[in-house]
Amino acid sequence: MHDPESTGEEIIFALSSSPPPARVMILRLDGQGSIGLLNRCLSSGSLIEPRTPVRVQIRWGQSDFPIPAVAVSWAKGKSWTGNEGVELFLPGGQPILEGVLGRFADEGARAATPGEFTRRAFLNGKIDLSRAESVATVIEAEDRTALAAARRVLSGELAQNIDALSRQLIDIIALLEAGLDFSEQEVESPSGEALEQLLQPAEDALDSLLERRRWPRSGPGVPRVLLWGWPNAGKSSLLNILVGEDLAITSVEAGTTTDVVRGLLDNGDQALEILDLPGDREPGGEIERLALKRARDLICGDDAILWVVDGRRSVDSIKAEYQQLPEDIKDRCLKVLTHLDQRTHLHEEFGEAFWVSSSDGEGVNSLRSELFKTVQLDPGEIHSAALRFTRRQWHLLERCKESLQRARRGAMAGPELLVADLREAQQWLSEISGEATPEEVLDRIFAKFCLGK
Amino acid sequence: MSNTDFDVIVVGGGHAGCEAAFACSRMGFETALVTLSEKTIGALSCNPAIGGVGKGQLTREIDALGGVQGFITDKAGLHYRMLNTSKGEAVRSLRAQVDKDMYSREMQSLMKSQARLHIVTGSVEDIHVTGDRVGGVRLEDSSVIRARKVIMTNGTFLRAVMHVGEEVTSGGRVGEGAVQGLTGALGTLGLETGRLKTGTPPRLDRDSIDWSQLMPQVPDSDPDGFCHWTPPPRREWMNCHVTRTDEGVHDIIRDHLHRSPMYSGQIEGVGPRYCPSIEDKIVRFPDRQGHTIHLEREGLETNSIYVNGISTSLPADAQEALVAKIPGLEKAKFLRHGYAVEYDFFPPHQIRRTFECRALSGLYLAGQICGTSGYEEAAAQGFLAGVNAALSLKNEAPLILGREEAYMGVLADDLVRCDPREPYRMFTSRAEFRLQLRHDNADIRLARKGNELGLITDQQAEAVEEDAKLTESCVARLHKERSGTKTFHEVLRAPGASWESLEESHPEVGAWGISQGIKERVRIAVRYEHYIERQQDEVDRMKRNEKWVLPEDLDFSSISGLRTEARETLTRLRPDTIAAAQRIAGVSPADISCIFVVLKSRERDEGVL
Question: Per-residue pLDDT tens for B398-430?
Answer without folding.
Answer: 999 999 999 999 999 999 988 888 899 999 999
